[in-house]
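pinging the channel bc i need a second pair of eyes. not urgent but kinda urgent?? the chain im working w is below, pasted from the shared doc
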Amino acid sequence: MFDAVKTKNEIVEFIREYYKKNNLKGAVLGISGGKDSGVVAGLMSEAIGPENVVGLTLPCHSKAADASDAQLVAEKFGFELINIDLTGTFDTFHKQIEALDTYSEEELKNSDINIKPRLRMATVYYMAALLSATRGGVYIVPGTSNACELYVGYFTKGGDSVYDIAPIYSLTVEEVIKVGEVVGVPEKVLYRTPDDGLSGLSDEDKLGVKYNDIAAVIRQDRELPEEVLAKIEKLHKGSAHKFDIPKFELK
């Protein structure tokens, strides 16, 4: 039986020990208005103090609700929230790509979706470096990916796959929600239907599988129909390149 209180306390201690061992000061993370970033923000605030946590809203042709939900999280945990609008940056970049050749919207769609988290992560690391230089200590970037997303490779290489500490790395979506209940993440954020904020689809619609089914594979706690299992394993194997970078070894 999953013990959310025990797990929350263990994660907080894990963060504190890492910060103490490496003489770190703060954390900078993107606050999307979703449960994962909300839970991580809450855990970081408890572990190192909200005065040492900085959240970023990074709109890029985004929904207005994302910013308002991010504000709820910042107000709940008491950390600083900074808005850096990347819409103009994305548009400038996109115009340069359009000038290269005549591509259809469909041909550009996947690249457009994936450049946004890469722009965001570059911005998060920029701010972490800036705050490290100006606030008297090292700021690092916590990751917000959960075990279900990682199992099927539902993240962007060079985007949300880049981070310095991973507090919810081994938690399934359901476990993240349970920890979020203990931490006190606002209900509107915690129970919001997860989506990437980029494609206009929910995570499950985009993946074609349910998060609780992915969790069943990870935890091996119930059997799934063969077609569902096959789809999940196809996603898992198809994303192996995101984890294992081939390296030539000189002999």
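so The mean pLDDT is 94. and The domain at 4-242 is CATH 3.40.50.620 (Rossmann fold). — does that match what u expected or am i reading it wrong
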